[in-house]
Amino acid sequence: MSRIVLRDLTKSFGELPVVDPLSLSVQAGEFVSIIGPSGCGKTTLVRVIAGLEPATSGDVEVDGAPPRHARANKRVAMVPQQPGLLPWRTVRANARLLLDVNRAANPTDAVAPEALLDEVGLSGFLDRFPHELSGGMQQRVALVRALALHAPLLVMDEPFAALDEITRAEMRVLLNRLVEGKHVTVLFVTHSIAEAVALSDRVLVSSPRPASIIADIAIDLHRPRPTDVEDHPRFVELCANVRHALHRGMAL
Ligand SMILES: Nc1ncnc2c1ncn2[C@@H]1O[C@H](COP(=O)(O)OP(=O)(O)O)[C@@H](O)[C@H]1O
Ligand SMILES: [Mg+2]
User: Fold this and answer.
1) Which range marks the domain in which residue 197 is found?
2) pLDDT grade, residue 218 (50/70/90)?
3) 44 and 18 in contact (C-beta within 8 Å)?
4) Same domain flag for 190 and 127
5) Fewer CB within 10 Å, N- or C-terminus of the chain?
6) Boundary of a domain, candidates 150, 171, 193
């Protein structure tokens, strides 16, 4: 489980400020969502934390070291918005992709992708190809591909954005089941309030660009999250809190 510390992080592209001085600390094992208006800098922020993009100023530490170390040591796994499966690889081979590519760097405790595929309900599809799967099934393979690395930090950038509402709701239940009790820290970018509240221990609300954290809302719902958590009055209340914070940010 990774611990993340940001101190006065800023990021600009040329003259364009994208992340304002931002300080944040994420505890080991926390599930933290970042929610904010489109274009506010969410992707940029998580790319800096994942070591894919240098910071302009300030400090970023993942487990006490610069993010590029975590990246080089395969301690961070990404789940992108589009599943990005290789069309010529079967489900099983796609799920193994990062393990195959990183065999040398990989620990022996990596989880067998077949067991994870079973957990996400794809054990009957191991030898199928991506074009034979629905969008939700493809995204489940992408999730397994990342989880199979057994990295202590999982960064997910709007992983369910391309899915229909019914499938998205299923994916929330599935993801909670997959990460609860696992030794993993999750940073989850979304623009869905219900998704953020259902999944997270904390929801960070960003202002419009340049991104700054205007609210840090603790999600005090029990774990494991019941599958009907979205019917609970506290869930509805927390969603309203997030929505109000977002609206306050837009009015600034
Ligand atoms: N590589 C880049 N070069 C220049 N500008 C960029 C780059 N990546 C993102 N931006 C700009 O940074 C801003 C924030 O983008 P992004 O982080 O993708 O926002 P979000 O994920 O919140 O929608 C946008 O104005 C975007 O045009
Ligand atoms: Mg984005």
Assistant:
1) 4-75+153-251
2) very high
3) yes
4) no
5) C
6) 150
